């Protein structure tokens, strides 16, 4: 699964915790059928997530305690926010539309 990582310093407006946002681009087949995602925190620690839900554009998963160190308490860390985007195909080959219509709920 291709990943686009963009770590940016943010301040969460409601909790005032600092977090790192990582963007993951997902192909439509992984978005519908599930996948495993591995993301790296700013200190290089790898977090593995098994995604079994349908991934929708803008969906977020939180990895607690893997964000930036908190300014007032560097021993504590904010969260790592993994945000998903879904890459839709520009066109479908052959009878793919008919197959999808038969198998996907309406």
From TrEMBL:
Gene3D superfamilies: Urease metallochaperone UreE, N-terminal domain. Residues 27-89 form the Chaperone DnaJ C-terminal domain. It comes from the Eukaryota. Keywords: Chaperone. The keyword Electron transport does not apply. This is Chaperone DnaJ C-terminal domain-containing protein. The lineage of its organism: Eukaryota, Metazoa, Chordata, Craniata, Vertebrata.
